[in-house]
Amino acid sequence: MEALLSFKEGVTRGVDILSTWRGEDPCRWRYVTCDKVDGVNYRVVDLDLDFIGEIQEYGLSAVLVPEFS
Question: Which one-letter DSSP state was computed for residue 12?
Answer without folding.
Answer: E
